[in-house]
Design brief:
With 365 residues, the protein is an alpha/beta fold. It is built from 10 helices and 19 strands. The longest helix has 15 residues.
Length: 365
């Protein structure tokens, strides 16, 4: 039951989860340094529409921007949606949003790229001009509503062809308990160590979930609270009656458009068809749960916990450093909550040195 909890269609639990307000999440990179603090360069202005102030009065912002993954020298597009109130009661329509990108993370300067006006659904789509396109790297993005300085945060990841990644289904791989408020389900013992193992080998970490994007703050904050390594996070665009199909479409798009190579994937039994559709070898599909006659030959099953699984990984051929130079642009860090003490960020330098010495791949910058 726990594996399906975060993707549940239980209406009561879903509504309760929306009422909980969660603060924005930052990222700690490498040695635990936090991304530089942001200060808007554009002052607040009056709303373009008089009705806006009335519509959003006493409502909490629930803006969200999607993480973007793109090949170097190809179109770089950022998307976001600006909403207020539980269950997205009000869309911010026809109002200014300033787009900022940090060019030299984690301590670089936030640069104002453009000002966009939201459409009738509270959405913006911003394509970076060709003369300002970014090279390989992971760039923090912040979009600020000009009228009240509320914001949406995301990351733009620019990669080289055939960058290798490891996929984790958040709900299928990590949760080990159920909470009626959905605020802090327990994490499976050893799950963080397994994700860190793959990150230290130079793989891009991709988290997928069937949850709607309106729950981004809750989910990313949960990852931060448990010190999960930083990665690309994908959500369904609104409520979906078929979240597994959206997961499959998202991963297929990464493979086809961004030329990503999925090296391994983790999830629950329900995720097996998603990974099979990508053509993954069953030796690199790891499933939390018990096998049955139908799926026993489609994946490797984790029955004895992640600690045992990690010890097995260290002796398996699949557990090898990522190939090529793509890992040079991938930060070895983790999600972090604003104001979180550096001591809470687990150091990751211990094994990086030995991995890099035994690998032909360049070290991470």
């Amino acid at each position: 039951f726990h594996a399906s909890y975060w993707e549940s269609t239980d209406v009561v639990a879903f509504i309760l989860r929306q009422i909980v307000r969660v603060e924005n999440v930052s990222i700690h990179i490498g040695d635990g340094k936090e991304v530089a603090l942001f200060s808007p360069t554009q002052p607040r202005e009056r709303w373009l529409k008089r009705r806006t102030a009335v519509k959003i009065k006493n409502m909490t912002a629930n803006h969200r921007a999607g993480d973007s993954v793109t090949l170097e020298n190809t179109s770089q597009t950022l998307t976001a949606r600006f909403m207020y109130g539980p269950l997205d009661m009000v869309a911010l329509t026809g109002e200014k949003v300033d787009v900022y990108i940090m060019l030299k993370p984690p301590a670089g300067e936030w640069v104002h790229f453009d000002t966009i006006v939201t459409n009738n659904h509270g959405r913006i789509n911003y394509t970076i001009p060709k003369d300002r396109m970014l090279g390989c790297g992971i760039y923090p993005v912040k979009m600020i509503v000009r009228g009240d300085h509320t914001s949406a945060d995301s990351f733009l990841t620019v990669i080289l062809p055939r960058t290798e990644c490891v996929v984790f289904s958040i709900d299928g791989s990590f949760t080990a308990s159920v909470s009626i408020m959905g605020k802090d389900p327990k994490v499976r013992a050893g799950a963080v160590d397994v994700v860190r193992h793959w990150q230290e080998l130079g793989y891009l970490i991709v988290y997928v979930t069937g949850r709607p994007d309106m729950q981004k703050h809750q989910v990313v904050s949960w990852l931060a609270q448990h010190n999960f390594p930083h990665g690309v996070v994908s959500f369904c665009d609104g409520l979906s009656h078929d979240p597994l199909r959206q997961k499959a479409n998202y991963l297929r798009n990464l493979v086809q458009e961004a030329e990503i190579v999925v090296h391994a994937a983790y999830g629950s039994v329900k995720d097996i068809p998603v990974y099979v559709s990508l053509g993954l070898d069953n030796s690199r599909v790891f499933i939390v749960g018990r096998a049955n006659k139908k799926n026993q030959n489609q994946a490797q099953f984790i029955n004895e916990g992640y600690a045992v699984h990690l010890s097995h990984l260290l002796t398996q051929p699949a557990s090898q450093p990522a190939k090529g130079s793509a890992c040079m642009v991938l930060h070895k860090g983790c999600f972090g909550l604003p104001g979180q003490a550096k001591g809470m960020i687990r150091p990751m330098a211990g094994r990086q040195g030995s991995i890099q010495q035994g690998s032909a791949a360049p070290s991470s910058q």
